Amino acid sequence: MQLLCGTVGARPFHGCLLRTRQRHSEGVMHRRALPIMNTGESGKNSLEMTIRRKHNEIAKRLENLGDDGLEWYMKNATPSRRPHHLVDCMEKKVSTGHGFLMVELARDTKIFGDEELTPKELAAAAAKFQTWGVDAIALQTDLLHTPDGQADLLAVCERVQIPVLQLDWMLHPIQLIDSAEAGAAGVMLVNGVLSKGTPKMVGFCESLMIDSLVEIVNEKELYAAEAFGVRLFAINVSVGLALGAVPGIRESVASSLVQNLPFGAGSIVGVRSENEARTIRAAGADAILLKREAFEGLKEHEIRELIGELQYMLSGDD
Q1: What residues form DSSP beta bridges with 189?
Q2: Strands, E, within the chain: which ranges?
Q3: Alpha-carbon distance 119 to 113, whole Å?
Q4: Which of 70, 92, 146, 206 could form a disulfide with 107 if both were Cys (CB 3.0 to 4.6 A apart)?
Q5: Residue 110 confidence class, pLDDT cut points 50, 70, 90
């Protein structure tokens, strides 16, 4: 995977330090297109096949752009119009002693009806959650969930004032540029997928002034991410902790990771129920991301009641 090197800026979460140090990574931009990967039977699981498919999508796009087109795209990248909007909102909320509530949405979310949503309807759903007091939207934009993730992202970002976190498989800086231009406040970087490329992608996010959440699944990944200055961690969001067969073990592992985060780091943890949210919040998570499974199939008033219960729990008065 060819990545564009960027500036890695440590941004401790809790408001006491913001980008206190910056270092410039060595290297230059590699303009060669990604090789098309074989999507035959070599894939060991659905995650591997998903990454292969995403890799090929980006490879074809880079091939169509060519070296000159990619260079122009990179040189004309536009930073975020609302720099570090997600972290700024999280810091303000957490500084009051309250937890931060995010809700996951996608065009194929079964909400307010059984039909797949249009971008306009998806934006309206996001706006409804905003009126209910949700602090941020986490939007799935991968082809698995929508035929046009960029259109969805643009529609939602234009409709709501709260931060929008893009959930997708980020493999190349060109995707980050698309995110910033659409108005996303942050993106998810999966450490287990990017591996050694994570620091460079974090640095490129910093140059675009969007927030990068680095998702980890175990302590090995936690310590590796901590070593290169990650200050905003995600757990059980995109990859998830595949431990659901044993009751309570997923929450236990997630809680352990939250408790071992470095001082000053922020945490966002995906949950599938109110009980999971309580467990994770008690462990010290700064933000709860309510997964779609928690409210799909519920009636509108039931979703609103669930949001209200979570807000009360996150207020510290529970």
Answers
A1: 214
A2: 7-10, 21-24, 100-105, 136-140, 164-167, 186-190, 211-216, 232-235, 266-271, 287-290
A3: 15
A4: 146
A5: confident
Closest by Cα among 99, 162, 108, 98 to 130: 162
Residue 91 has pLDDT above 50, yes or no: yes
Query: Taking Cα atoms as reference points, which of 292, 312, 313, 286 lies closest to residue 87?
Result: 286
What is the structure's pLDDT at 39? 39
Query: Residues, the chain, total?
Result: 318
The model's pTM: 0.85
Does the pLDDT of residue 241 top 70, yes or no? no
129 secondary structure, DSSP code: H
Query: Tokens 């050694």 identify what position?
Result: 196
Contact 14, 264 (CB under 8 A): yes
SS (H, E, C) 246-309: CCCHHHHHHHHHHHCCCCCCEEEEEECCHHHHHHHHHCCCCEEEECHHHCCCCCHHHHHHHHHH
**3-class DSSP state of 9:** strand
Q: What percent of the chain has pLDDT over 90?
A: 71
Map residue 75 onto helix, strand or coil: helix
* Structure tokens, 26: 């060595």
Whether the CB-CB separation of 268 and 287 falls below 8 Å is answered with yes
- Check pLDDT > 70 for residue 316: yes
- Closest to 192 (Cα-Cα) out of 21, 29, 45: 45
Per-residue pLDDT of 267-313, as tens digits, reads 999 999 999 999 999 999 999 999 999 998 899 999 999 999 999 99
- What phi-psi label fits residue 37: left (phi over 0), alpha (psi between -120 and 50 degrees) or beta? beta
